[in-house]
Amino acid sequence: MELLPPLLPGEDKAPAGEGGAPLHIALVGRPNVGKSSLLNRLCGEERAVVSDLPGTTRDSLDIRVERGDRAYVFVDTAGLRRPGRRGHGGRLAERGSALMTVRAIERAQVALVLIDAAEGFTERDQRVLALVRARGCAAALLANKWDRVEQGEEGWAERVADRIGRRLQAMGDVPLLRLSALTGRGVERIFPLARRLAAAASLQIPTAELNRWLQECVRRHEPAMAQRGGRRRPLKFFYATQTGSMPPTFLIFCSEPRAVQPSYRRFLTNQLRARFELQGVPLRLRLRARERSSRP
Known about the structure:
By secondary structure, the chain is of the alpha/beta class. The chain contains 8 helices and 11 strands.
């Protein structure tokens, strides 16, 4: 079942921190996980309506917050829900809210995906996080209401953290921050985390450094042979270059792009993320055959 209706096309994002511009951060998640409560805690006053009823927030709300010499714009978005859970009379409003949430993600340099830690990392939470990454936005997972988890039975907090960590392994090492919007615990750690994610998403890697990385990868783990008809031939990687940022996008020239196995693409992506500290940042890796006139 789809989480959202058809989405609007994306737009280019401004480099994080360019010209002293504030860092835009979208707060996203399913209904009633504490987005508005967190926003109020961040700005130190009651700016967003808080209610136990899901769906209280329908429109995106932009609030500027300053810490030290840095400015941040937090966007409180409507909770993302399954289409089947909408009432008949509210379908158009829900659709509009969902589209506004997607636009907020596209405008943001960082998206913070809130979950209710007491309920765990659900499949709906996973779909929200997958949506954020599909839109090319750097992301972190915020386990809100962690105070409730710690008040549970002995060992519950460790089990919850372990389950969340296992599910995040398939999401490119998305950072996890445990916090409580109610008590304020862990909330201030959001600011350095957001800055780190934004810096990683806008990172520009020199071509020479990328090619040293590529050579090391191939030396460490050679790709499978390319099959053409009845012949098998070595698959060669020539050079790599970065073609964009936010999200970081890379172009790798090789002899047989179609012969590169999905597992080897994952290997390259994981090695790229580990080498250049791109945890929490979606990466775009494109393969292209080198033309005869091409030179590194």
